[in-house]
Amino acid sequence: MKDFSQLKKNINKDFSGLKAINVAVLGDTSTQFLAQAIRGMGYEKGFNLHIWEADFNQIERQVFDATSELYKFKPEIVILFQSSHKLLGKYNKLHPDLYGSLASDEKKLLESIYLTISTNLSAKIIYYNYTEINDAVFGNFSNKTESSFIFQLRKLNYELMLFAQENHDFYLCDLSSIQNRVGKETFFQPSVYINSEMVLSIDVLPEISSKTIDIICALNGKIKKCIVLDLDNTTWGGIIGDDGLENIQLGSLGIGKAFSEFQYWIKKLKNRGIIIAVCSKNNEHVAKEPFEKHPDMVLQLNDIAVFIANWGNKVDNIIQIQSILNIGFDSMVFIDDNPFERNIVRENIPDICVPELPSDPADYLEYLYALNLFETTTFSNEDFERTKLYQNEAKRSIVQQEFSNEDDYLKSLDMKSTVEPFNKYNTPRVAQLSHRSNQYNLRTVRYSEAEIKMIAKSENHFTFAFALEDKFGDNGLICAIILQKESSTTLFIDTWFMSCRVLKRGMEHFVLNTITTFARENGYNFLKGEYIPTIKNDMVKNHYRDLGFDESGEFWLLSTFDYENRACFINKK
Amino acid sequence: MERNDVFKQVNEIFIDVLDNESIVLSDQTTAADIDEWDSLNHIHLVVTIEKKFKVHFSSKEIQSWDNVGEMVDSIYEKVK
Q: Which CATH number covers residue B67?
């Protein structure tokens, strides 16, 4: 990771071509270096973060004045940093009878800050939680004393988490866990604080800015979706081909604990929706043996979406994995203990993330934890099911090769689609897809769950959630449409995105048939579409043209009354 | 280490931290003479110097120097 000096130098570089976002930074201590670090780190992560920074200790002044510079700046992201130092300062000035109300009073203040900001802006708020200052006034007894500062601080941090669960636009950035990891002596330098009111050391600014921007990345769909896992000396100790089933290290054998715990971590990631693929230099049946027979294996074959074990080179194998999964290389992480393999993959697939795994397996987990690779801003039921979905897709690929005729293959799938308006069951998945969908996305508008709920209730919008199943399994919700009443004759297609899992099945024809029929039956003459180009959605640039829409300025129009249903092999369920 | 070596390294640190290749320091140079040398960048300079020379300055020391010469003297006392 770059140090602060290098991040500061990024500020003079060329930001053109990077996604521009207005970010406000407000704090109750000196935030200039934090703001510089955030701008500089934004460059590293592909963002042009236009930062407006409030003057020293002006949070309330800026938030509670509707005409303030904060609101004039119209930020999409508001970063609020209320420091533990100032919190301790407030505590110190309280009458001792009021010590025990610090956490609840601060929470009330935060609620009103949040409410006021949300009334005046539609911004996401990133709030740093509180790092611990153990003033040792009660020793360990603080933990039994509600009026102690550390009790109140920890209570406040817990209340913040509850608040974050209830308020969808409020995100916590875990400053406290950073101090835990690096240690207070690295995080905080008293001599610097006394001279400058800076409570964050220069050394820790890169990591703080990185973790802050990780949230912004996730909000913008820049997330990791897949781990490609090596096996020998990564998933277990030793080499299965040489050592055999009884001698690979797992569980209590040798340093097996390092690998078992590593597997538990991978398993948790899989359960939360990360796709796990295996890429190993081994004979396939030898590589599969521990999964099938070793009693201490945590990962099972059905945890693995794509399993590739052969003697070919890993670059080719990873390219094949990518084409089966149809996700960007930049959403993949390659974990391999062998520096040679890592370098070759890095050189040939520049977009893929290749952690520089430490040489001692005991260090794997702490290193990987610190990288914070799996930031997210959504979590839905479909995350649990994702692996099965990709496994089914791999099966379809195999069957497809048996058909010489595309139409016969599609017919054989026996595809059925359910169409529903947005409702409380599909809302989380719709919101999540709006964040994850980059390629088959016409306007790339990201919606939170709360925004989807509002659209679902709105009288000016008609919503359609499409799920697709076939004889291999259920793909779940794979397409969402939002139509907006633009006039008495025209419905504007505000949103059309589809999961890349279901390309080339004729889904777009089914969708168009559905929405055009709806429009016609409700008296609308025209459907109006718009394509907003991004770096990733080039594949849909001719979407409306190919569907028979006519170009009309920057938009596309389809007449609903003379529309004939397009052929497809999908039936309404 | 000679005082001269300390001086040269301090000059390099100023160039790097303040991102200005044309900085040429003398013992009499003060913050008033260099645009980018404000109170916040002063902290950045101090922290960088501490790391480079493996020394630590107390909070009083950080505030006490009136010019580059005094800064270099302070460092030299700790490394000689």
A: 1.10.1200.10
Q: Given CB atoms, is A401 within the 8 Å cutoff of chain B?
A: no
CATH superfamily ID and name for A4-219: SGNH hydrolase (3.40.50.1110)
Residues A206 and A39 sit within 8 Å (Cβ to Cβ): no
Q: What is the pLDDT of residue A403?
A: 81
Give the model's pLDDT for residue A380. Answer: 76
Counting the structural domains of chain B, the total is 1
Q: Would you state the pLDDT for residue B64?
A: 86
Helices A149-166, A102-120: inter-axial angle, 10-degree rounding: 30
How do beta strands A47-53 and A77-81 pair?
A: unpaired
Fold of A403-572: Aminopeptidase (3.40.630)
For the domain covering A226-371, report its CATH number.
Answer: 3.40.50.1000
Beta strand pairing call for A490-498 and A526-529: parallel
- To the nearest whole angstrom, how far is the Cα of B62 from the nearest Cα of chain A? 8
**Between residues A379 and A460, which one has the greater pLDDT?**
A460
Decide if A252 touches B, using CB distance below 8 A.
no
CA atoms within 13 A on the CB side of A13: 18
In tens, the pLDDT along A67-107 reads 999 999 999 999 999 999 999 999 999 999 999 999 999 99
Write down the pLDDT at residue A475.
86
Please give the average per-residue pLDDT across A122-136, as a whole number. Answer: 97
Contact yes or no for A395/A501 (Cβ under 8 A): no
Domain ranges (residues) in chain A: 4-219, 226-371, 403-572
Q: What ipTM was assigned to the predicted interfaces of this complex?
A: 0.90
Token pair for residue A419?
Answer: 């169409």
Q: What is the pLDDT of residue A404?
A: 80
Among A49-58, A284-293, A493-502, name the one with the lowest average pLDDT: A493-502
Q: Between chains, do B47 and A30 touch, taking CB under 8 Å as contact?
A: no
Residues of the domain holding B21: 3-79
Report the C-alpha dihedral over residues A296, A298, A304, A308, rounded to 10 degrees: -30
On the question of pLDDT at A401 being above 90, the answer is no
Distance from CA of B37 to the nearest CA of A (A): 14
How crowded is residue A525: how many other Cβ atoms within 10 Å of its Cβ?
Answer: 17
Using a CB-CB cut-off of 8 Å, the residues of chain B touching A32 are 40
Which chain B residues are Cβ-neighbours of A202 within 8 angstroms? Answer: 43-44, 47
For chain B, say whether A190 makes contact (Cβ under 8 Å): yes
Q: What is chain B's Cα-based Rg? A: 11
- What pTM, to 2 d.p., does this model score? 0.81
